[in-house]
Amino acid sequence: MLPRTTRLTFERLDRFESRLSHRFAELSRHSPTLWLFRLVSRLGDWPAWVLLCLCQPLWHGARGWLIAVYWGLTTAVAALLYRLLKTRLCRERPYITFSTIRCSMPPVDRYSFPSGHTLHAVMFTLLTATTTPSLLPVVFPLACLIAASRVILGLHYLSDVLIGGLIGAGLAWSSQALAVLIFPPL
């Protein structure tokens, strides 16, 4: 059972963010916008990040395999952490709490907090910045679109996305610090 203070905090946040969430979700009523944000959301499910990870050996040779391994380990930790948070904190999605907020795409799981898509998008963007910065002109805008898609599709509150991004940044920086200690210089 969720602690009373956590539940009340989320209820207050939900009310505070409801208008903004509604306005963002209304953007999905425009067909080209809906198509674009569904596409980037699907890319953020896993395809973009798996492709980015698997291409590291192409860009970095043998060193790329080490990069792919440490990215894979970081991803496993990220998935465990965000699943743990989601299933313990149990924040309902905006479209469940407020019937006026449109859900424009089926969610991957039940709960909203934090945004796993944004967590992974920020994490992979920062990992890319340290290993393959030449890809940032592609990866950074994709990460921004993925983060925006979560609110526009009615799947997350803005705070879910912001906290997901902060967790993703923390995981990327932590894993980079550990990688320097464990692996040869990346």
Short structural summary:
By secondary structure, this protein is an all-alpha fold. 76% of the residues lie in helices and 0% in strands.
Task: Provide an overview of this structure.
- The radius of gyration is 17 Å and the shape is globular.
- The protein has one domain (31-182).
- Helices cover 76% and strands 0% of the residues.
- With 186 residues, the protein is mostly helical.
- The chain is built from nine helices and no strands.
**Structural class determined from secondary elements:** mainly alpha
The largest pleated sheet is described as: none
Count of individual beta strands: 0
Number of domains: 1
Shape, per Cα inertia axes: globular
What share of residues are in beta strands? under 5%
- C-alpha-based Rg, rounded: 17 Å
Helix percent reads: over 70%
Q: Ends: how far apart?
A: 43 Å
Topology record:
Blueprint: H1 4-26, H2 31-45, H3 47-54, H4 56-60, H5 62-89, H6 94-97, H7 116-131, H8 136-152, H9 158-182
Helix pairs in contact: 2-8, 5-7, 5-9, 7-8, 7-9
Notable traits:
mainly alpha; single chain; 186 residues
